[in-house]
Amino acid sequence: MMQASTFLTKFETKSNRVKGLSFHPKRPWIVVSLHNGIIQLWDFRMGTLLDRFDEHDGPVRGVHFHKHQPLIVSGGDDYKIKVWNYKLKRCLFTMLGHLDYVRTVQFHHEYPWIVSSSDDQTVRIWNWQSRSCISVLTGHNHYVMCVQFHPKDDMIVSASLDQTVRVWDISGLKKRNLGSAAENAGSNTGGTDLFGSTDAVVKYLLEGHDRGVNWASFHPTLPLIVSGADDRQVKLWRMNDTKAWEVDTLRGHVNNVSCCMFHPKQELIISNSEDKSIRVFDMSKRTGMQTFRREQDRFWILAVHPEQNLLAAGHDGGMIVFKLERERPSYTVHEGGTGAPYLLCVKDRYLRMHEFGSGRDVPLLSIRRSTGCNTALRSMSYNEAERALIICSDADGGSYDLYEIPKEGRTSDSAESKRGIGIAACFVARNRFAVLDKSKQILVKNLNNEVTKKLAPPHPTTDLIFYAGTGMLLCRSEDKMTLFDLQQKRAMGELTCQNVKYVLWAPDMKNVAFISKHSVILARREAQKLEHLCTTHETIRVKSAAFDDTGVLLYSTLNHLKYCLPNGDSGIIRTLQAPVYLCKVLGNKVHCLDREGNMKVLSVDNTEYTFKMALTERKHDEVLRIIKRSKLCGQSIIGYLQKKGFPEVALHFVKDEKTRFNLAIECGNIEVALASANNLDDKECWHKLGVEALRQGNHQIVEFSYQKTKDFERLSFLYLITGNVEKLHKMLKIAEMRGDVMGRFHNALYLGDVEERVRILREMHQPALALLAAQTHGLAAVADEVRPGVSEEQQPSCEPAPGASLLFPPTPITRENNWPLLRVSK
Parallel, antiparallel, or unpaired: how do β-strands 29-34 and 480-485 relate? Predict the structure, then answer.
């Protein structure tokens, strides 16, 4: 029986019916052609629509990426073949020639050719550089549903509703077209006559299907062809230099098979059908392995990624990018206690031990693997004291194997394991492990796999358990993680977090990281309670994580290595070419596994996150050491220091004078600010410097700043409060020279010079005010001089009020030195 499976979905779109699909050979892109005439370009890793092209009239049935150039070719029901440049975001040209719907189009991997199949019963080969048809292949006597170039040889395979698959030899076409320059001038259709060409000849005619054939495809490396037809069968064909023959028929679909192809990496055939299913067949055993079904949608098209373990399928309601099985290696890291830390991982059906320090890698024992699909290993739990290992897998809907690891130096070829059924299992004490069984009970078992205790989990919806120290478990249920004490049989602490997939403890078991598909949550265990520290969200999938010695969490996404601090700060350390799974961070070396289970050591610059961590923990000696030794610089680190309230630290990094000045003002470093202001010589800077210097009581720099900005009013007031009478006299003279009446009056007021004030008021035709000022200050002679100019009715109001006191400048506290500052330790 074929196993019904769930998609390991990586990306999904909802749209009009999908008729054509093509993966980009290098970038995480997929181009999709729809029944409504639109072509979409998606980034399936980010889940974003990059572009859409809308020039075809009617359904677009075929689409393909060029291997090297930024080109896409499409063919549709408008009989047109269009070539698009996705960098220029436009259609470059249209090629006409087919007389009916174009079914499929494909670029040649090497030559400047495109092959197309059509309902006009022909296959055409085009040169996209000369934009002309170079060959018409006739012979089919019904719609040609599919055509493909051979990945290496000069051959083409075509499938038609005339119930045949044809393999064509196009070596003659290659010789004539690529051997002469005549064709590049776009001479003619390459020696074709009315009834077809001799450049491409039928090499094999494959007959065997009872109905029309919808698809045929070459194997990437072997001389094999797979075809799918309306007779609901998938047929496997083999060919040699002289003949081709049918090898076997794969049955299982209950409606027309719309597409089928070989997996580029594994011995699998994948087919999809209008029966709303995708089927996976074992190529060597020729038996069904997996079936993926949709409720409503018929499948029309498949695409396999040439490099990665990814497939895409188009259906009535959109398309889906998925994997057949998980690629994550199964591993666990042992911190080593007294010894050096090491890694245990399963590779090629062997449990291997890898020492991080020495790099020593030794096989320990052979691991038995269940056959069939969905048997991927999920997790491991290791007990060093008893040299016992639990490996959990998806086999039988969730099971575990308990192994005893042989002593150092002895490799066991076929270690017997104690198997049990359970959703998850992990060690909780030296000779006890916990299992979450399928009835959602927690069973505590001994090393003989015998149940010693049965417990109800803290929540009835608990669906996964993780290690949380001796006698403790972390239980996942819906959107909660619960710290559960097995002895007391009660929940100790709880934290809300969605869909946690992995749990990672820091070496001191104080901090813990909860990893889900798109977020990283850091928490601290305090007195058996869980305290949330921070949450970091990611748009791209989070794959793994590891704590370093200082408590910083490093984590990897599909394409980045990042860090996260307990205070919530995060950032990118480096980009990754391929996903890796972090195991151990030692200084600036990150030990990780790739998808094949090979150990890799990445060198990283850990300066930024160690610096931020030292700042957070207020380890000022460490901060200074990093500043002196490293080349930390850039706007981001300066911005970070400013935001976090460390402008004085930021000063060490800044070369730009304007930024340096602003930071110096922010942290009150007058000397640095003065030096920067001198270099900048900008009015705004001098003003800011004056304000800060005044705040600190440094009146000498305040004076210098005001002089630079020619801020005469402020300068006069400064001289008043510092008691500098000599300079106030100078300011009075400057105001007189500048014709600044108010400035003169203010300076005269600050100096207590009544005669000057009376003179100014008389000059400004204010005799009444001049008389009042003279009489108030007892200057009788001056008052007599002024009185004739004041009218009779105004004179009574110019008498001083009884009990009025004179206005005198205040006595300055200190005349020479800057004002003293009170030192406060921060």
Answer: unpaired
Query: What is the pLDDT, as a whole number, of residue 339?
Result: 67
Q: DSSP letters of 389-426?
A: EEEEESGGGSEEEEEEPPPTT--BSS---EEEE-SEEE
Which of 318-327, 360-369, 672-681 has the least mean pLDDT? 672-681
CA–CA dist 560, 545 (Å, integer):
12
Q: Which pair of tokens denotes residue 151?
A: 């990945």
CA distance between the termini of the chain: 74
Contact 564, 520 (CB under 8 A): yes
Please provide the DSSP assignment of 654-707 as one string: ---HHHHHHHHHHTT-HHHHHHHHHHH--HHHHHHHHHHHHHTT-HHHHHHHHH
**Tokens (6 digits) for 520:** 């990283």
CA-closest candidate to residue 557, choices 517, 523, 510: 517
SS3 725: helix
Answer yes or no: are the C-beta atoms of 641 and 650 closer than 8 Å: yes
Q: Which two tokens stand for residue 509?
A: 């078991």
- With a CB cutoff of 8 Å and minimum separation 6, the contacts of 191 are 176, 197, 198, 199
Residue 470 contacts residue 505 (beta carbons within 8 Å): no
Q: What angle do CA 20, 25, 30 make, to 5 degrees?
A: 40
Query: With bands split at pLDDT 50, 70 and 90, how would you rate the model's confidence at 321?
Result: very high
Distance, in Å, from the CA atom of 455 to the CA atom of 563, rounded to the nearest integer, reads: 38
| Torsion sign across C-alpha atoms 807, 813, 818, 820 | negative
Residue 787's pLDDT is what? Answer: 80
Q: How many other CB atoms sit within 10 Å of the CB of residue 371?
A: 7
Coil, strand, or helix at residue 481?
strand
The answer to whether 90 touches 50, Cβ cutoff 8 Å, is no
- Cα gap 572→12, rounded to integer Å: 27
Q: Under a CB-based contact definition with an 8 Å cutoff, are residues 269 and 260 in contact?
A: yes
Phi, psi of 759 (to 5 degrees): -60, -45
Of 630 and 316, the one with more pLDDT: 316
Query: Which of 300-304, 673-677, 687-691, 799-803 is modeled with the greatest confidence?
Result: 300-304
* Residues with Cβ within 8 Å of residue 803, at least 6 apart in sequence: none
Taking the CA atoms of residue 372, residue 377, residue 383 and residue 386 in that order, the dihedral angle to the nearest 10 degrees is 20
pTM of the complete model: 0.71
